[in-house]
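User: Fold this, then the next.

Assistant: Folding the first:
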Amino acid sequence: LIAILRTLHERKLSLAEISYKNESRNLKQIFLSNRLLFFFIISIISFIYEWFPLYIMPILAYFSWMCWINPSNNFLAQSTAVRGLAIGGGGLTLDWYTLTKYLGSPLIVPGSALMNIAFGFVLIMWIIVPIVYGTNVRSFTTLPIGGVILTEFTASSLVTAFTLFASITAVFVQTLLFHGIDIWRQFRT
């Protein structure tokens, strides 16, 4: 915010503006010398870039190009389609917001974290899940991809699920009880 306010309201001329001051003015010089005009043009381009794919033509946000290879193949559609009841591993996007919307803000997350997330996504969604689904490990193909199956849980599977959630909570409680004093000392120093 401070950088944009200084850019738009600062009175000092930059080196580019000083060198272009005495020459004939063409389009490039007008953009370099008039910061507000440049800001408005970039804002309009950014607005169109975000508005057009999201509201006018949402097909530009996702391309399930692998489904175009063989439209009648259900396994290919379930493993590569982006929308609907699919895994979502084969989509191509032209929208940066679509790539980073689950992160909250792409400006806060470091590049190394994005690379770790991308590597994990490729490993799990493009390699492991299609292999498990294609080889039908433990009758995996009977489960609906992306569907809600809470009504089909048995008592034993619910006990297992709740035990897993309780174990995650137990890890945090155990860490606080046994190492809480050391953690607190480290935060204070």
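Now the next one, as you asked:
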Amino acid sequence: MKILHLMKDKLDGNLKLLLAELLTNSGSHLDTTVENISRKYQLRRDETESFIRKLQKRGLAFISQGRFCLTPKGMVFVLTLIERGSYHE
């Protein structure tokens, strides 16, 4: 859950929307995903890339042929956080 605390300070109440954005962009080009998230949530590009890399490091996402994809474990993780609302913790 440390990964969410890194972004929580930047986003406050928008973390649920960011998680939904990750689901929406799964399968998209990494550059497009980073650009969309950075623009919508007014984050620096390097912060967004760092967040995605942390997801990847924890086995929640992978990057293949320049595309960002959530793993099945990552999808369950994100959906569980959205459903339970534990992103506020």
